[in-house]
Amino acid sequence: MSYLWSQQDLWARVEHDAEDIRDWAVERLLDMYPESEADLLLKIPDLPSKTVTRILSRGSGEVCPAGLLDIYAHIDNPRHKAGVAARLICHGHDVPVAPDDELLHEPCLYHLSSSAHGVAFLLQRYRDDIENPVALFYDLANAVDGSHLVSWLQEEPERKQRRRWFKHLETVWGCALLDLHRVSSASGAARALADTLATAPADPEVDALWKREVLSALSQDRLRLEAIAEAAAGRVSRLSDPDPIETSFLLACHPGGPSRSAVPGVSSECDRSR
C-alpha cells in the first residue's frame, strides 16, 4: 500500500524543531511503517525527551534492535531508562532493576505483561519483595486479563456491592466463584485461588484448530495463575499487614481459574469478555 507521506518525508520531520510535528511524524511512522520502530529506538540518544516518551509508549514492544542494550547503559532519564529496560526484559535480556526503579511504578505502560519473559520478571519481583509498588499488582493481573478487576475491587469496598458483582460474573461466565465477596484478607484470597486451581477440571479434548488455539492460550493463563498462587502462599505468610490492594489483586486473579476450566467445552470461553 502506498501512502501520501513517504518514510523519507516522515523521517525528515522526526527531528523537526516543532514538538507537535515531531510527535506527528513518529505516530505516522509507527502507524504506516511499523518496520521503522527498530530504527526509532536506536535514535533515542539523539531525540528530545517528549519524542522518546512517545516512541516508548506508542511502540508495539515487539522489536528489540541489537544496539538497544548499549543505549540503555547511557540513558539518564529514569522514565526512558525504565521503558528501554522493560523492552529488553521482554526480549530475554537480564537487566538489573533496583527496588525504587521507575520501571516498577508505571502501571501497564511498558508491556511487561505481554511477554513470557516480562511475566517471569513480574512474578520474580512478586515472590521476592515484601512490599511491592501498586503498579506491579496491576501489571501482573494484566498478564491474566484481570487488571480492570483490580481497579473495580479497589473502588468497591462494600461487601454487598461485591456480592452483586460476583453473582453477575457467575452468570456471565457460567461458573461458581465460591463466595468471593466474603473474602476480606490477602491470606483468604490466596487460599481461595489455590483451592479453585486445585479442584478445577482438566481442559476438554477438542478437534477444531481454533478451539485448540483458544485452549492453548487459556492453558498459558492457568500456568500463570498457578505461579501466582504459589508465590502468594509464601508472600502472605510473611506479611504482617498486607496492603488491601494485595487482596484485590488475588481476587482479580481468582476468577481466571474457574472461568478457564469449569465451563464445559470452550464456546462460552470465547464469548466471555472481561
The SS-based structural class is: mainly alpha
H/I helix tally? 15
Q: Taking all residues together, what is the mean pLDDT?
A: 79
C-alpha end-to-end distance: 35 Å
**What oligomerization state is this entry in?**
single chain
Strand proportion: under 5%
Largest sheet: none
- Overall shape: it is globular
Task: Explain the layout of strands and helices.
Elements: H1 7-14, H2 19-32, H3 37-42, H4 49-58, H5 68-72, H6 78-90, H7 116-128, H8 134-142, H9 147-155, H10 159-173, H11 186-199, H12 209-238, H13 244-253, H14 256-261, H15 267-271
Write a concise keyword list for the protein shown above.
single chain, 15 helices, 274 residues, mainly alpha, globular, disordered C terminus
Task: Please summarize what this structure is.
By secondary structure, this protein is mainly α.
Written overview of the protein:
The structure is a single chain. The protein is an all-alpha fold. The chain is built from 15 helices and no strands. Helix 7 runs parallel beside helix 12 and helix 11 packs antiparallel against helix 12 (209-238). The longest helix has 30 residues, at 209-238. The radius of gyration is 21 Å and the shape is globular. The two termini are 35 Å apart. Mean pLDDT is 79; it is low at 256-274.
